[in-house]
Structures are given as structure tokens and as C-alpha cells.
Amino acid sequence: MEKFVNHIQLGYLGLLPFLGCVGWPLMVGSNSVNLEFFSFYSIAILAFMAGNLWHAGQQSFADAIKAVLPVIPIPFLSFLPIEWMLAWLGASFWLVLIFEKATIQWQGYHKDYQKMRFVLTSVVFVCHILIIGMSIYPK
Known about the structure:
Blueprint lengths: L1 H12 L1 H14 L3 H20 L9 H8 L5 H4 L4 H20 L9 H26 L3
Helix pairs in contact: 1-7, 2-3, 2-7, 3-6, 6-7
Protein name: DUF3429 domain-containing protein
Pfam family, one: DUF3429
InterPro entries: DUF3429
């Protein structure tokens, strides 16, 4: 368990910017800077999580594709309305978790880490839904 404690703590700390971006508009009103920060942070965390699935030389071609599938469309999402981009990002966090659970490594992870991954994915997904709602109905 001790080797996963830091990962669990860092995972929950990584939620703070997501939660802050949801709380900020509720306290001071919605603004475009908050929406941009949330989007960029979401992209960075998604890329990090998907990158953790990459095991060069140790995985099948199909598993390598799964590791990059959630992040390949990101540059093209900039041409879509922000709500569509956020919807893709929110759904992609679930996609990364599903792909991670299908790996051999998942079986060796401590149950607390597995639980944390589900909780983090759920909270991040809900934050995306809330931010989409705030961008549609800003006041």
C-alpha cells in the first residue's frame, strides 16, 4: 500500500484546480479566463493520464492505440464550440479509466488506488458537466 499512498494523495490534490474552476464562477461570476484555464488543465491532465497507459515495447499495437486515442482529437476540438470540447474531454477521462482497467498492470494496483481512480474520474466528469452548464447559462 505504501507505494500507492503518494499517488493517491497527488491524485486528490490534482482535483483542486478542477473544483476551484467550478467554485470560482459560483463565487465571483463566470468568466472566459476560468473557462480557458479549466479547458487547458483538463487537456493537460487527460494527456498525462493517457500517457500513463503508454508502455512502449511492452504492449500490443491495439493497446498502444488505446493509449493515444483520447488525446489525438484534441487539436481538432479547438474548431468546435467549447461545450463540445468539454464533453469530449469529460468522456475521455472515462475512456482512459476503461482502458486502464483492461491492462495487466491494473490487477497489481492496490484496491485503494483503484477506488481513487474511479472517484477522481467521477468527480472530474461531474466538474466537466457543471462547467458545460455554466458556459451555456453563464449567469
